[in-house]
Design a protein that fits this description.
about 325 residues; alpha+beta; Alpha-lytic protease prodomain-like; Alpha-Beta Plaits; 2 domains; four-stranded mixed beta sheet; 10 helices; about 65% helix
Length: about 325
């Protein structure tokens, strides 16, 4: 029987590890990357044939989206890697770093789009193959719209809103801030992509039938400005994520309710929840009822910790125990 060489066996294990890691990547960003790659190819062909500046702008937009979402997909997969001795806090913030790289790409594409738009405003030119452009932009709206709806469903799943139908669309805008960084990126980018494709469709049709060709350049500039808005929004959110940001109030309340649901916990003396990527790191001092031995108190502490770790969004938990001081410290504050 042939025995595989150690080197080949090692490569096989590494390959299987990478496949396992990629399967844990953010599904919305992976699907979006594939969809936008296809869109960038067909839009690029149409822009080359027709010479439309707006079509060129949406091509760059789709190319930027495909690159960004591919980067973020790999980043979200790496963020799931288990903590090591060298990196005991895990790799949750890696995804924020990848998103910031994506923001740089968005900014470059926005600049190129605005420059192209300004050239068309100064020297407007009619575009040809109007029906080719219209057909491809309709396809783009359908694909971007389906990717956007997929991101909305992912927001509903990650925020546990249990929405269905139209409510998924309505509440996605309200709950997007509670979603993971990759899902937020896909959502914001595809809101702009879908709107940008609609804008491009309108400007191309109006410019063709009215002869007001400057609209092609105006539409191109508007798409570039929308890209800058997305870059600023996503860049800000992920910069504070890299620094380390407190969990949203709704998450804090959910964790507090889980702690206080234990019959032997009478109060929360201190609770700090740090968000890293899509995981939360919890540090808390809890007050237990009077008269417990140290061994029993330890058992309660581990019981509370294990209960918190059942939450899929919780990465790790550190808990200290105190005897009650008969002063109720923990109060739910209204969300601002």
């Amino acid at each position: 029987m042939l025995v595989p060489k150690r080197g080949n066996d090692l490569h096989y294990k590494r390959g299987m590890f990478m496949i396992k890691l990629l399967r844990q990547g953010n599904k919305s960003s992976g699907i979006a990357a594939l969809g936008n790659t296809l869109l960038a190819i067909i839009k690029g062909i149409a822009a080359f044939i027709s010479g439309s500046g707006t079509m060129f702008a949406t091509t760059l937009h789709s190319l930027a989206d495909a690159t960004n979402q591919g980067l973020v997909f790999f980043g979200s997969a790496l963020a799931e890697k288990e903590p090591t001795k060298r990196f005991p806090a895990g790799f949750g913030r890696v995804v924020n770093l990848f998103v910031l790289v994506a923001v740089i790409i968005i900014s470059i594409m926005a600049y190129e789009t605005i420059i192209k738009g300004w050239e068309l405003v100064v020297d407007p030119k009619p575009s040809s193959n109007i029906w080719l452009n219209i057909g491809i932009l309709i396809i783009a709206i359908l694909i971007d719209g389906s990717i956007l709806f997929k991101a909305m469903k992912e927001i509903a799943r990650e925020t546990r809103s249990n929405d269905h139908g139209v409510m998924i669309i309505k509440n996605s805008y309200k709950n997007v801030r509670l979603a993971s960084p990759p899902t937020r990126l896909v959502f914001y980018e595809d809101v702009i992509a879908t709107f940008g494709a609609l804008l491009a469709l309108m400007t191309i049709i109006i410019a063709y039938f009215t002869g007001f060709n400057i609209l092609d350049g105006v539409g191109t500039i508007l798409i570039g400005l929308l890209l800058i808005g997305v870059a600023i929004k996503i860049g800000y959110e992920n910069t504070i994520g890299l620094i380390g940001v407190a969990a949203p109030k709704v998450v804090e309340d959910r964790i507090a309710d889980m702690i206080l649901s234990d019959p032997d916990v009478v109060d929360i003396n201190k609770l700090r929840i740090l968000q890293e990527g899509r995981k939360y790191h919890i540090e808390s001092y809890i007050e237990l009822r009077e008269g417990l031995s140290l061994a029993v108190a330890d058992d309660i502490k581990f019981r509370v910790r294990d209960n918190l770790l059942t939450d899929p969004d919780v990465g790790d938990v550190t808990i200290g125990i105190l005897e009650t001081d008969d002063i109720h410290s923990w109060k739910k504050e209204p969300e601002h």
